[in-house]
Amino acid sequence: MTDLNxxxxxxxxxxxxxxxxxLLPCLLESVRRQxxxxxxxxxxxxxxxxxxxxxxxxxxxxxxxxxxxGEYPSRxxxxxxxxxxxxxxxxxxxxxxxxxxxxxxxxxxxxPGLAGIYCPTYPYDAALWAKIEYTLWYTLxxxxxxxxxxxxxxxxxxxxxxxLFRETGGFHPTAFADSSFSxxxxxxxxxxxxxxxxxxxxxxxxKMGIAAFNRYHLAMIMSVVFKFFRASRWLxxxxxxxxxxxxxxxxxxxxxxxx
Length: 259
Fold this sequence. Notes:
Layout: E1 11-17, H1 24-32, E2 39-45, H2 52-58, E3 62-65, H3 71-80, E4 86-90, E5 94-95, H4 100-110, E6 114-118, E7 121-123, H5 128-148, E8 157-161, H6 162-167, H7 177-185, E9 190-193, E10 199-201, H8 210-216, H9 218-230, H10 233-255
Parallel strand pairs: 1-2, 1-4, 2-3, 6-9, 7-10
Antiparallel strand pairs: 4-8, 5-10, 6-8
């Protein structure tokens, strides 16, 4: 981990928490084992009543305390005090592949125009139906990205340039703020999926059962798939092509010499 007294880190890893003593050590251990060590960790804690804060401090994290403001406002608060030039948003129930930060640093280094990167997630301890659904979901959203060039990031892992995040005001305090924020940004900036890495998350979101889980995510699915597709650049381009083709055909008929 970078000594902040001597230099500023490349990455600021931001983790919102509330009573995460069971899962937080696994995340922080996966961070500590990264091959790339130029980072700081900021834990934005929502007044946990368990050992979350002590665990975070033991791993060298900076800990800020919020008071019931919720996940996305907590992420915004942490971003305001971050030293890193790239913010890495993740969750307490996440496991990061050992080479992840190294890979992300290389991608930002190769492409100065790159504004953000996100990765697909996989629930390592979920039921089979949930693992299949996660796989299908990220296959669909990746396909939509290649069609529309609009991102659908999750804060299980979402890395973006600090300056841009602050300039654009950060996450709105709404459901699925990460997805909507990344879609909005990608209309003007390069936000790309990182398909050579998989982020592992706990399956706790799926333990409500298949019906409740899908009902909970119905709004996001409708927003991403339907509204997203109707406003896609590909669809607009296709419509413009058909209009232009039809116009040229009419012009040809009008301009063609009479027999």
